[in-house]
Amino acid sequence: MLTVDDDEFWQGMSPVEFGELPTLQDAVTVVGYPIGGDTISVTSGVVSRIEILSYVHGSTELLGLQIDAAINSGNSGGPAFNGKGNCVGIAFQSLKHEDVENIGYVIPTPVIMHFIKDYEKNGGYTGNVVAVN
């Protein structure tokens, strides 16, 4: 977990609120700083699949959202928002193949909340199952 020690940094900031797990065809907006520009990028699409995915960087399989919004290099780690402005996940990878266009993947809020609860309870990520309300 990263933080900023200077309390002034946080003045005037509002935390992002997490939303529920979206359903198929729900609209999503992904925000980030992908390669090819110097300013923020916003792409939109819909949830096209919800299933257990292979997390390339984590060498594990967890729940994930497939979306048709572009997720390009540098966009990973950016939030994915629903139509109400709630964060429903974090963009983390895309499918690269010559026959594929705009297939991206999002870590959904239940997986994020599991990580946060584990971190808060144990002072670091242990992978232990914790109750998420």
Question: What do these coordinates show?
Answer:
With 133 residues, the protein is mostly beta strands. It has one domain (23-122): Beta Barrel (Thrombin, subunit H). The protein is 11% helix and 34% strand. It is built from 1 helix and 6 strands, in the order E-E-E-E-E-E-H. It has a 6-stranded antiparallel barrel. It is globular. The chain starts with 26 loop residues before the first strand and ends in an 11-residue tail after the last helix. The mean pLDDT is 85.
Layout of secondary structure:
Elements: E1 27-32, E2 41-55, E3 60-67, E4 79-81, E5 87-94, E6 104-108, H1 109-122
Antiparallel strand pairs: 1-2, 1-4, 2-3, 3-6, 4-5, 5-6
Pfam families: Trypsin_2
Keywords: Hydrolase, Protease, Serine protease
Family: Belongs to the peptidase S1C family.
